Amino acid sequence: MLRVAVVGTGYVGLVTGTCLAELGHDIVCIDNDRDKIERLKAGDVPIYEPGLEDLVSANVSRGQLSFANGIAEAIAPRVDVLFIAVGTPTEDNGSGGANLGYVYAAAGEAATALAALPDDPDAFTVVVVKSTVPAGTNRKVAAIFRQHLTDERFAVASNPEFLREGDAISDFMEPDRIVVGSSSERARQILEELYLPLTRKGHPLVATSTAETAELIKYAANAFLATKVTFINELARLCEAAGADVEELAVGVGLDQRIGNKFLTPGPGFGGSCFPKDLVALIKTANDFGSPVEIVETVIRANDRHKLLMVRKIRNELGGAVSGRRIGVLGLAFKANTDDMRNAPALTIAGQLIAEGAEVCAYDPVAADQAKALLPKLQLAETIEDAANGADAIVILTEWSDFRAINWEELAPTMRRPLLIDLRNVCEPKDVLRQGMEYVALGRPLSELHYRAAAE
User: Fold this and answer.
1) CA distance 16 to 280
2) Domain harbouring 349, CATH code
3) 48 with 183, same domain?
4) Fewer Cβ neighbours under 10 Å: the N or C end of the chain?
């Protein structure tokens, strides 16, 4: 069992600390937000993530997980591994780079606290940068620690996170891979011990000889996935124009083992806290090194354009204008199983519909309040039925599982026009049509006759 401190109790820090406690380590999670720490001590988890609250409660009860407001008291008398898991938001100066101020501040405070511990010739701490950071950040963190400690007392390592919101616990406990990057062999060995409960189960640990490689793996992975999402969205629009079916296309393409079928599901565009932020940070890093990543630059432009083209699609289905129309929106969060509204496609799509004079009434099981704060003119529905009542169309923007089982036969008579515009392709066209609805999907044949014939 290792003694581990996690600085930062946001999404990454809290999930990391809780899951490491579940693996049997002694964990203390630290945050300078006193109110948040008091809430966590009281069992109130401030973020929405399925299963996290129960896992926190169980590990607090077992004594594996605790919370503290300051680093100095939390790491005494020793700490084997200290994670830095604070936010790295996009700089507000327009550069697109990651704001590393929180990382460096946490590093400075931690270095001071470690230096103040009683002398112990055997003391050694691995400082792990868990935050998503540009290549070269770990070297700067190491320089901060060297102002207070000798190299015999610490080593710095990169251990990027690959957590999907809504699936974070399973992603941590059943990872595709664990990436550890450090020039210190001792640091790599300690982190191998930390993750031994996972590697024993067959989950691979990728150890890179430099932190820069690990830092770039995180950005490269997200950039590739975002590219794949954007690619299938562009192909979906081409399928509509050519009379092809993107669902069938995705199967045919995804069966190629060099490509795979993951992230080949069309939608209204990617969003969330990671893809948009990480892509612009990668572009900034690449430009700083004089090696532009033009594909990634194109992906961002194409994704922004796709969201606006989804507005045009809705507009066209409603006769060329949405002014005065009532549109019910199902789903606001950028993806299912989260309340995260950061860069959600709904902000662009619903926002533009409202700007063009539409009355937009939206339902989301967990993200409604967050969306209302960002779109004050958005009307909120308590239920799916409320969103559909009197609507000229229903638009699905988030793939919540509940939307797959809607009884359209009951909803259709309550709508002004029984039109479903399914921008996530979550519904089965034949079933929807049998229940008296008109159906429009994304990237599937434009002619309803295609589905109507199949339904009959």
Assistant:
1) 25
2) 3.40.50.720
3) yes
4) C
Tell me: do 215 and 323 sit in the same domain: yes
**Mean pLDDT, the chain, as a whole number?**
95
Per-residue pLDDT tens over the stretch 395-406: 999 999 999 999
Contacts 24+ apart (CB under 8 A), 379-382: 381/328
- Global confidence as pTM: 0.91
321 and 387 in contact (C-beta within 8 Å)?
A: no
Query: Nearest Cα to 367, choosing from 399, 401, 334?
Result: 334
Per-residue model confidence (pLDDT) at position 449:
46
Sign of the four-CA dihedral 400, 404, 405, 406? positive
- Helix locations, 318-407, DSSP H: 345-355, 368-374, 384-388
pLDDT, position 120:
87
For residues 266 and 160, membership in a common domain is answered with: no
Q: Which 3 state secondary structure label does DSSP give 3?
A: strand
Nearby residues of 436 by Cβ (< 8 Å), 6 or more positions away = 408, 409, 412, 413, 418
Q: pLDDT by residue (tens digit) across 92-112? A: 888 888 999 999 999 999 999
| Contact by Cβ (8 Å): 278, 219 | yes
The residue annotated as part of the active site, out of 19, 29, 239, 274, is 274
Same domain, 120 and 216: no
Q: Closest Cα partner for 37 from 8, 69, 74?
A: 69
Q: Residue 36: helix, strand or coil by DSSP?
A: helix
Q: Among this protein's residues, is 427 annotated catalytic?
A: no
Examine the fold and report which residue of 209, 239, 274 is the final residue of a domain before the chain moves on: 209
